[in-house]
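Input (structure):
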């Protein structure tokens, strides 16, 4: 979703985008990483396989990231919600 992109000036003075919010967390006491592999975030940017088959292997593949990026690009180009009625 657009709120997960932070834009900052790089060392060369140019603007650089950074992606945030990967549903990862570091547990300080146990010194372990946690990850959320379920459906989370904003549904308008989630791939269909994440919604309809959340336990399928494809729901956690690179293709869902490509789908979400396409949804994000649609929003950035048009300024409209990619799925306003859903």
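Output (sequence):
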């Amino acid at each position: 979703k657009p709120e997960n992109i932070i834009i900052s000036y790089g060392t060369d003075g140019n603007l650089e985008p950074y992606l945030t919010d990967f549903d990862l967390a570091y547990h300080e006491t146990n010194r372990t990483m946690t990850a959320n592999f379920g459906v989370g975030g904003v549904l308008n940017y989630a791939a269909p396989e994440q919604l309809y088959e959340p336990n399928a292997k494809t729901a956690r593949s690179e293709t869902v990231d490509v789908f979400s990026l396409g949804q994000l690009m649609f929003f950035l180009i048009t300024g409209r919600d990619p799925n306003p009625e859903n």
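Notes: Strands lie at 5-9, 15-19, 24-27, 32-35. Helices lie at 48-52, 62-78.
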